[in-house]
Amino acid sequence: MTTNLENRDIAATNWIKLSFYTTSIIFNLCLIAQVLTVGVAYFSNPDWWNIHVWLVRGYSGLSLILLVESLIAPFSGRIRGLTASLPVLLGIQFSSIHLNTPLHFEVLHPLIGFVLFYVSSSLVHHLSREVFKKSDAVAES
Predict the structure, then answer these.
(1) Those residues with Cβ within 8 angstroms of residue 28's Cβ, 6 or more apart along the chain or in another chain
(2) What is the tally of helices (H) and strands (E) in the chain?
(3) Which DSSP state fits 132?
(4) DSSP 8-state assignment for residue 44
(5) CB 26 within 8 A of CB 62
(6) Residue 36 DSSP class
(7) Cα angle: 27, vertex 17, 32; to 5 degrees
(8) Furthest CA-CA distance within the chain
(9) How much is the pLDDT for 135?
(10) Closest to 118 (Cα-Cα) out of 26, 31, 17, 22
(11) What is the pLDDT of residue 104?
């Protein structure tokens, strides 16, 4: 039999997980918007480049919020690993475009962006399975 204190702990954990899931979706949508804006800037209207740059400056802080939340809530190692890689990949993204080297690492910028999108999408996918599986198990008991 569960006590009221245990029910509050479960409710708080579920709230944190749902908040984390929502934040990860917002992060993923920002990545999609960023890819779309760079496409519009390249193929149609160069003024969209400023929006592309503004977006990454605006949402990159979400990766740190996700990292902190992943350490608070009881998530699997897989989710924590995916979350920890987001700020690392963003750091590499910033470095690849701002560092001028004779090796031309800036050509890796789009590839790193695709990896970032893959990791973010995988995080959302794994989170949906973990968050809603746990919620169903709690509802059944």
Answers:
(1) 117, 120, 121, 123, 124
(2) 4, 0
(3) H
(4) T
(5) yes
(6) H
(7) 15
(8) 66
(9) 47
(10) 31
(11) 84
The pLDDT confidence band at residue 68, using thresholds 50, 70 and 90, is very high
- Interval 73-110: pLDDT, tens: 889 999 999 999 999 999 999 998 888 888 888 889 99
Q: Which amino acid is at 16?
A: I
How would you classify residue 75: left for phi > 0, otherwise alpha for psi between -120 and 50, otherwise beta?
Answer: beta
**Alpha-carbon distance values, 91 to 60, 62, 114, 116 (Å):** 9, 13, 14, 11
The domains located in the chain, with CATH, are 4-140 (1.20.120)
Which of 107, 101, 105, 67 lies closest to 87, judged by CA?
67
**Within its chain, how far is the Cα of 126 from the centroid?**
12
Show the CA angle centred on residue 138, arms to residues 137 and 141, nearest 5°. 90
* Dist CA 131 CA 127 (whole Å): 6
Kindly state the average pLDDT of the residues 31-40. Answer: 94
Query: Would you state the structure tokens that stand for residue 20, as one six-digit string?
Result: 């984390």
CA gap 84, 7 in Å, rounded:
29
